[in-house]
């Protein structure tokens, strides 16, 4: 039993002692450290900008974007903002029937959200779908 406890113990390195305890002549602040790390940080690699040239390519792009939105909606957790982004994207594609469908799905899921209702009403008024 004693050997079991000995095997499970974590062995930490011995702490080292600081030999020179006098303050450095030039003090470095946390702000300086953060600034230096930002300067040395590499820029993120962005995908190349693509131009859509034919209707087939456009339909493939739209299909891919819709799948991305639908996958994000299916994830657990709050997805209200994903619905809003999806509906606005459909609106930007001039596909108002799909945009309205996305808004209605969002409202079916979160019908108590007043901001969502206001955004939906704004969509309807902006595109002149008033009765």
TrEMBL record:
SMART domains given in the database record: HAT (SM00386)
Phylogenetic classification of the source organism: Eukaryota, Viridiplantae, Streptophyta, Embryophyta, Tracheophyta
Entry-linked InterPro entries: HAT, Syf1-like, TPR-like_helical_dom_sf
Gene Ontology cellular-component terms listed: post-mRNA release spliceosomal complex; precatalytic spliceosome; Prp19 complex; U2-type catalytic step 2 spliceosome
PANTHER family assigned to the protein according to its UniProt record, in alphabetical order: PRE-MRNA SPLICING FACTOR, SUPPRESSOR OF FORKED DOMAIN-CONTAINING PROTEIN
GO aspect biological process, one term: spliceosomal complex assembly
SUPFAM superfamilies: TPR-like
Cross-referenced Pfam families: TPR_14 (PF13428)
Disordered, as annotated region: 1-25, 37-57
Keywords noted in UniProt: Repeat
Protein name: Crooked neck-like protein 1
Superkingdom to which the source organism belongs: Eukaryota
């Amino acid at each position: 039993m004693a050997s079991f406890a000995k095997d499970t113990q974590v062995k930490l390195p011995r702490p080292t002692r600081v030999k020179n305890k006098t303050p450095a002549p030039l003090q470095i602040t946390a702000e300086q450290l953060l600034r230096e790390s930002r300067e040395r940080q590499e820029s993120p690699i962005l995908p190349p900008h693509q131009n859509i040239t034919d209707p087939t390519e456009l339909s493939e792009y739209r299909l891919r974007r819709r799948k991305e939105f639908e996958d994000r909606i299916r994830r657990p957790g709050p997805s209200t903002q994903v619905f809003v982004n999806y509906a606005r994207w459909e609106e930007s594609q001039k596909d108002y029937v799909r945009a309205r469908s996305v808004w209605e799905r969002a409202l079916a899921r979160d019908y108590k959200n007043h901001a969502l209702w206001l955004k939906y009403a704004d969509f309807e008024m902006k595109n002149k779908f008033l009765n």
